Amino acid sequence: MKKFMKDLLATTMVFAMATSLVGCGGSTEPAADDAAATGETLIMATNAEFPPYEFYEGSDVVGIDAEIGAAIAEKLGMDFKIEDMAFDSIIPAVTSGKASFGMAGMTVTEDRLQSVDFSDSYATGVQVVIVKEGSDITSVDDLFAEGASHVVGVQTGTTGDIYATDDIEGDGFGTVERFPKGADAVLALTQGKIDCVVIDNEPAKEFVAANEGLVILDTEYAVEDYAICLAKGSELTEKINAALAELIADGTVQEIIDKYISAE
Ligand code: ARG
């Protein structure tokens, strides 16, 4: 019952949000009209398999990143469009200029900084481990314990993939199975095909709430910063940082986050 109520509430919230998103993106807004006149459209590359940051509500991509992206475009007086793609296609889309920026709960890493610039950070992410209830894995350390040999599920190209590939597969503590979507990894876990999933905490909470018999380990695998990625040297970076700073200062970013993530 409690869970049902929560789901219902979440659905209602998402609906309210989708409605307000339509409202703020309306072509009657003067800023949007100006931008349309100059033909400037901000194209956000994302991977909409990552609730509550980006996911589908009907045929619309909604979520924290979708809304912050739209708010940035509005501040800059530009039209806004979201392009959904595989997570590991986002950086290529940005470097090739097909997208203006990438926003996908994307972690700032040294490696990615070789190919893209990042905006200031707008959120913190934590890599966590999802297991089946009663699993022999009870803490993150169990993954690196002597003799450990687990099959670890991740979404392809994510930091979960990178860490698990290095720390677990690379050091002989098991193997990594890569899935196109986090939800596919979680499904494989429920089916007993893999032993755990390494993924960001907020999507982890959503996946665990949607599936019986799964738990998130208390110990954290890694703490990270989320930011927007842009082509190296892009003139947009400064503008996006300025817009982001205003949206943080006036409470818009927090409001958006609160719509999707309920305080515990
Ligand atoms: N934070 C992780 C990373 O940067 C996972 C992001 C996955 N995002 C997504 N929209 N699927 O690699």
Task: Write a structural description.
With 264 residues, the protein is an alpha/beta fold. The protein has 10 helices and 11 strands. It has 2 domains: 32-122 and 227-260, Periplasmic binding protein-like II (D-Maltodextrin-Binding Protein, domain 2), CATH 3.40.190.10; 126-223, Periplasmic binding protein-like II (D-Maltodextrin-Binding Protein, domain 2). The strands form 3 sheets. Strands 6, 7, 8, 9, 10 and 11 form a 6-stranded mixed sheet that branches. A 3-stranded parallel sheet has the order 4-1-5. Helix 3 crosses helix 9. The two termini are 18 Å apart. 40% of the residues are buried. Residues 46-47, 49-50, 54, 87, 104-107, 125, 155, 158-159, 200 line the site of arginine (ARG).
Question: Which key features would you list for this structure?
Answer:
single chain, 264 residues, alpha/beta, D-Maltodextrin-Binding Protein, domain 2, 6-stranded mixed β-sheet, 10 helices, disordered N terminus, binds arginine
Q: What does this entry show, briefly?
A:
The chain has 264 residues and is α/β, with parallel strands linked by helices. It is built from 10 helices and 11 strands.
